[in-house]
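User: My advisor asked me to double-check a structure prediction for Cell division protein Fic before group meeting. I don't want to rely on an old file, so could you generate it fresh from this sequence?
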Amino acid sequence: QPLSAEQVKVLNRLLDGGERGFEHGISASQYQAVAKVSKATATRHLADLLEKGCLRRLPGSGRSTRYAINAPASSIALPARTSSQDTTTP
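Assistant: Sure, here is a fresh prediction for Cell division protein Fic from the sequence you gave:
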């Protein structure tokens, strides 16, 4: 089942980061405000995004539960290695 328009909107906000985004994840109540949906729909959408692997649950529970983009390690930009860090020998 494809993502809803509201889910896409929230994922885009999470990916944007910065002032308009959610650098420390998003809560169900914040999802509700951004997507303009009911609390029950926000909770359902978040559960669906978790199940699809789009989001991951951050530490915390209850009202403090927050969710963040579930980026695979391969998509995270790492600093380039310098030749002095190279441990291989010729």
